[in-house]
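DM from R.C. (forwarded with permission)

"hey, sorry to bug you on a friday — could you get me a structure for this? deadline for the figure draft is monday and I only need the backbone to look sensible"
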Amino acid sequence: MNKEESSEIEVNEKINDIFEKLTEYANYPDYQLERRLDIFFLIYLKEILTIKGIDISDTFIFPEFPLLKKYENEFYDLEKSLASKRADYVVFSNQKMYIIELKTDMESINENQLNHYKNVAKKISVQTLINDVINIYEKTKSKVWKKYDIFLKDLAEKVKIIVFDEDKDKKFEKKKGYKFNKEFSNYKVEIIYIIPYANKIIKEKLDSKEYIEFDDIIKRLNNNKDVISENFIKILKDIK
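My reply, with the result:
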C-alpha cells in the first residue's frame, strides 16, 4: 500500500466515524442533528431537487434566508417589523423562488410553520421578500449589516435579482444602495419541505410537489458509491 492509498483509507475512516457519531448522538434529547447534517444536504441539494424536476445546476444556493415573522399568520400584521426567521435554503430557478425547509425530525413539524410558508408562497411576492432583506440591511445598526452587505452582493452578482441604486446609495455613508431588479417581477414563490416521511399533517397541508421524502433521496443517490454518499444514505435510512 502506497502513501496515497493509506491517506485515502484514513480519510474514509474519519468520514465513517463522523457519520457514526451523528447517528449515535441523534437519539440524545438536545442534540440538534439537523444543524450538523445541513452541510451534507447542501452538498446534495442540486441532485435532491431533480426529484421534483427542478434544475439548479447553474444556480447559487442561499442558506439561512431571512423571512419576516409578520407573515406567520394568515392575516399577518403589516407593521414594519424587522424580526425574521430563516429559511434553510433559497434558490432561484425556472422563474421561481424556491424556499426549502429541511426537517430531520417529524416531531419538529408544526402547523404554524407550515402556515407561515404557505402564506408566504400564496400571498407575498418575490419583490416584497427581496425588499424585506434590503430593508433589514438598511436599518440594521449592529455590525451584522456587513454580513448582509455580502449577502446582498451575492444576490446582485450571482442571481442579479437586485441591482445597484445610485440615488439610494447617496443617502448612506458606509452602506450601499440596492433595489429589486424588476426583470424578476414575474417570479413566483414556491415551498419545498425535505422530510423523513409524509405524515398526516404534511399530506393535509402540502401538495405532493411541495415535499421530498428521505426515501426519494435514497433512491436518487443510491448509485453514488463514494464514501460520503454511502454514509449519507445510511444515516437517512437510520433516522427516517
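R.C.: lifesaver. Residues 74-80 have pLDDT under 50 and may be disordered.
me: no worries. Residues 3-63+93-122+186-239 form one domain.
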